[in-house]
Amino acid sequence: MTDGKRRRGLMAASALLGGVLVLSGCSGGDDKGSGDGGNGDSQSQVDEAAAKKSSEAQIKITPKDGSTNASINKAATVTVAKGTLTEVKLTTADGKPVEGQISADKKSWKPSVQLERATTYKLSVTAEDSEGRAAHENASFTTVSPANSFIGTFTPDDGTTVGVGMPVSINFDKAITNKAAVQKGITVTSTSGQEVACHWFNANRMDCRPEQYWQEGSTVTLKLALDGVEGAEGVYGVQQKTVTFKIGRNQVSYVDAKTKQMRVTRDGKTIRTIPISAGSPENKTYEGQMVISEKFKETRMNGATVGFTDDDGEGEYDIKDVPHAMRLSTSGTFIHGNYWGAKSIFGNVNTSHGCVGLQDVKGANDPNTPGAWFYNNSLIGDVVVVQNTGDKTIAPDNGLNGWNMSWEQWKAGSAV
């Protein structure tokens, strides 16, 4: 090959090689450019489009998904910001629907009924923003169990009218160790303006009363704000409730076991004197201020239930139809009608096993007997003061009888 031909061949080869290198370089450049420029711009456009398509509505569910020990009063609430609610479904774990209501402004939702304890619920929520774009949120939670919660059974009942001696008495189904926290969640007020103090008899019972009897005609309000209050370690309150009751006329009756008479007073004035028969010398009636806690037109009284048994272990008495009976103590002290005793005992002899008896008839159908009159003219919460029996004063926690404690002693039992 001549020098001219060789040079032309090398130039051609060099041009080809250069072309390959250039092409390879361009190919590499294209790959890099696609990652930073082409595909990057494209992905950014996809993200921007997705953002434009997603709803601005912000849904909030209480409690958080997966919560346990949730409140039966405050759980399952839904709110939305930057949008409105269009659908909310609350169901139990097995699919049973729970009624609820979206607010008028469609910004919130809550159940229409109280939730059940120890139940798992599921919430499904849909909301829309101003552009009509939908947002979705789901949550599941379990409400507090009976083992991890406490409730207080209270007396008197909402809407009732009671006597001036009626305390607010609350019995808790679990022992309360954090008494101060629980007591702070309970308020008792009266339209009379009387100061009300609460007293713990034990870990399960707290009573509240004023220094003197309630003012007649006043209205008393009990508020239980115990939801979420830890009454003992790991045990929480669930009640959110307001109760009101009215105080009726001021009736206080005085039983004198020595004279064997009962003087019934209203507003301090005697309206009737009734002959009675109190506990015998062997079975004296407790002394003290006692509050009527229950009324029965007829009831059974069996001595065995209160410790009066014969040698065979049977009750010393078992009367299945005691008329016009009103309970004065938990331990079994009643003021009641008596049809089995001779009329001559009333006002003359104390013959009972500790109760206060009034002359009455079998069947409790004669309204003219002393027993019937007193029953018909008495309210739960009326006070019966028993005197001159020779027995000890009734224990303040034996029935609703905290009036037998001084005001200083009563307030000393407060946890706050």
UniProtKB/TrEMBL annotation:
Indicate whether Chaperone appears among the record's keywords.
no
Question: What are the UniProt keywords, alphabetically?
Answer: Acyltransferase, Cell shape, Cell wall biogenesis/degradation, Peptidoglycan synthesis, Transferase
Q: Which residues of this protein are catalytic?
A: 336, 355
Source organism's superkingdom?
Answer: Bacteria
InterPro entries xrefs: Big_10, LD-transpeptidase, LD_TPept_cat_dom, Transpep_catalytic_dom
According to UniProt, this protein's pathway is: Cell wall biogenesis; peptidoglycan biosynthesis
Q: Provide the residue span(s) of the region labelled Disordered.
A: 28-56
Which PROSITE patterns is this protein grouped with? LD_TPASE, PROKAR_LIPOPROTEIN
Q: Where is the L,D-TPase catalytic domain?
A: 251-387
Look up keyword Isomerase and say if it applies. no
- Write the protein's name: L,D-transpeptidase
What species is this protein from?
Streptomyces composti
| Organismal lineage | Bacteria, Bacillati, Actinomycetota, Actinomycetes, Kitasatosporales
